[in-house]
């Protein structure tokens, strides 16, 4: 089992015409091209490798230092200009992909972020916890297992991408092991962000908590 940390990189507001066809997983070439052109116009120097073809989420350990530098500076710009308070800031958007034996069972949903690691910690300990993104999975516990239900009603928001398996179970202990591995990746990522905070003179206290570890809604 893997719990893979990814961040969503948008920049779709660059005046590049978006593909007429969707969703991205059915037309990955068109969406990859759109994302590439948008990132280039936004000022990114290095190319990105999408987590899935056409997607705009990226494994955090595959993002170049130069690209991460721009992401951090841009994400914190309004906060540093005091346009809102720290308590209103969010970690980097994205979250965690749950993968078992190569099968991706759950992706981060809209409004998810790296602070959702607390959701995964909570449920690995059998603790009831809402998921900050939407739509949210229904999570139940059965002894040493966690049950996920990704079914939606007719007029409810659909999961993205559409799940191939709507209902599945995972072992609590296996999830705990996956979380431990994920936290090692997050620690390295946090150190990179702290280095950017220093080199760019962002002067943000505990920037690693702000962008990675904390979500006050948990």
List the helices and strands and how they pair.
Blueprint: E1 2-8, H1 28-42, E2 57-59, H2 65-75, H3 77-80, E3 94-100, E4 103-106, H4 117-124, E5 138-142, E6 145-149, E7 167-171, H5 172-199, H6 207-213
Helix pairs in contact: 2-5, 4-5, 5-6
Name its key features:
6 helices, 4-stranded antiparallel β-sheet, 7 strands, globular, 33% helix, 3-stranded antiparallel β-sheet, 218 residues, alpha+beta
Major β-sheet strand ordering: 2-1-3-4
Give, in order, the helices and strands. Answer: EHEHHEEHEEEHH
Which value, in Å, is the CA radius of gyration?
A: 18 Å
Q: How many discrete domains?
A: 1
| Mass-distribution shape | globular
- Output the structural class: alpha+beta
Strand content: 15-25%
- End-to-end distance: 24 Å
Descriptive overview:
The chain is an alpha+beta fold. It has one domain. The protein is built from six helices and seven strands; from the N terminus they run E-H-E-H-H-E-E-H-E-E-E-H-H. The strands form two sheets. The chain has a four-stranded antiparallel β-sheet with strand order 2-1-3-4, with helices on one face. Helix 5 packs antiparallel against helix 6. The relative contact order is 0.17. The model has no long low-confidence stretch (mean pLDDT 96).
């Amino acid at each position: 089992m893997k719990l893979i940390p990814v961040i969503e990189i948008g920049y779709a507001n660059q005046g590049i015409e978006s593909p007429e066809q969707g969703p991205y997983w059915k037309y990955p070439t068109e969406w990859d091209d759109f994302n590439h052109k948008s990132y280039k116009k936004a000022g990114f120097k290095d190319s990105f490798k999408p987590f899935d073809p056409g997607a705009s989420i990226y494994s955090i350990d595959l993002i170049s230092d130069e690209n991460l530098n721009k992401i951090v500076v841009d994400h914190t710009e309004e906060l540093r200009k005091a346009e809102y308070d720290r308590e209103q800031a969010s970690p980097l958007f994205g979250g965690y992909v749950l993968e078992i034996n190569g099968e991706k069972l759950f992706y981060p949903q809209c409004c998810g972020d790296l602070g959702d690691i607390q959701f995964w910690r909570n449920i690995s300990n059998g603790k009831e916890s809402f998921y900050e993104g939407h739509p949210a999975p229904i999570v139940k516990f059965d002894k040493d297992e966690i049950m996920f239900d990704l079914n939606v009603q007719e007029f409810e928001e659909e999961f993205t991408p559409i799940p191939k398996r709507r209902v599945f179970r995972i072992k609590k202990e296996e999830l705990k092991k996956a979380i431990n591995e994920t936290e090692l990746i997050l620690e390295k990522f946090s150190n990179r962000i702290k280095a950017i905070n220093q080199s760019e003179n962002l002067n943000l206290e505990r920037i690693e908590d702000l962008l990675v570890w904390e979500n006050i809604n948990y």
